[in-house]
Amino acid sequence: MIKTSPVRLSWLIAAVVVLFLVGIALWILKDGSRPVTDDAFVSADSTLVAPRISGTLANVYVQDNQTVKAGDVLARIDDRDYRNAVLTAEANVETANAQMLSLTAQLVKQQQTILQAQAVVEADAASIAYARQSADRYKRLLQNGSGTADARDESDANLRSKLASQQSDMAAVQGAEKQVDVLKAQQAQAKAAIDLATTALAQAKLNLSYTEIVAPVEGVVGQRSLRIGGYVSAGTRVLAIVPLKNAYIVANYLETQLGDVQPRQPVDIKVDALPGVVLKGTVDSISPATGVTFSPISPDNATGNYTKVVQRLAVKILLDANQPDAQRLKVGMSVIPTIETASH
């Protein structure tokens, strides 16, 4: 039997202790380059869906937790009132157009009225010329003793009557011309009425289209409160759509862990609900402020009782594509991400 000397045994023990310490140091260094936290969860940018108009639900086409695509009709509001509104708006447009056509016809007719009035004025000029000649002739006859004073007075009165008629007919021409301006002003009002009725018709049709509540994005239906026969109000949330295909991780790391964390670093992600599954991701960004900064009541550290507390910053982690297990994630699931800071 070979005996081991005490000196050699001491060296052996010392070597084992050194190797153990070196191993611990390497493990600490390696772990220091792989920040990990269990304060992390799955998140997604959910879209809250609310109707644009109020009304009673006539049909509901989706169920809880159903997958929908963008543009799918989720529900339909009773559209009878809105269809009647469209019909009323169409009738108003037709009325406004008819008024415009009537004014256009009146304007054309007014031009003819002006021409007729001007023709009357021209006829008056001819009559006045004849009456003036007659008056002059009877005046000369009276001076020559061949005529009578009554005949002269009658011819003078006829001339004055013709002149008065001409003034009246000229005033009629001016009135007819002014009526053109009135009709043009009424046309401008009619055009405004057409624009107003057309806008109202477009809004009525838009409101009718709003009776269909459609999915704005692709995702899974959640928080559904739609029920047939229920009354919904404009702007009130009726369900949420969660785009699970675009899910990401929000990890709240201690500020002391983020010294070497940078965007595009790879991340290993363990999911509490999926034992043995390790998903791959990439650091997208780091929050510009700690969580307490955005809280409604910020802490006041300007006191004599200050106690330093290590803060946490949210790190957004995007999941890599083509991972079948990623489709099993649900918003709110707890995860444990580990960032490979040594790779960058």
Write the layout of secondary structure elements.
Elements: H1 6-32, E1 40-43, E2 47-49, E3 55-60, E4 67-68, E5 73-77, H2 80-144, H3 149-209, E6 212-214, E7 219-222, E8 231-232, E9 239-242, E10 248-254, E11 266-271, E12 274-286, E13 312-319, E14 335-339
Antiparallel strand pairs: 1-10, 2-9, 3-5, 3-8, 4-7, 5-6, 7-9, 10-13, 11-12, 11-14, 12-13
Assign the CATH superfamily of the largest domain: Helix Hairpins
Put simply, the count of helices is: 3
* Rg calculated over all Cα atoms: 48 Å
- Low-pLDDT runs of 5+ residues are none
CATH topology descriptor of the largest domain: Helix Hairpins
Helix content percent band? 40-55%
Global structural class: alpha+beta
What separation lies between the terminal Cα atoms? 56 Å
Shape: rod-shaped
The description of the largest β-sheet is: 6 strands, antiparallel
Q: What topology, given as strand order, has the largest sheet?
A: 1-10-13-12-11-14
Strand content: 15-25%
Number of strands: 14
The tally of structural domains comes to 3
The overall pLDDT average reads 85
CATH architecture of the largest domain, by name, is Orthogonal Bundle
Query: Which CATH C-level class of the largest domain is it?
Result: Mainly Alpha
Following the backbone from N to C, one meets helices and strands in this order, namely: HEEEEEHHEEEEEEEEE
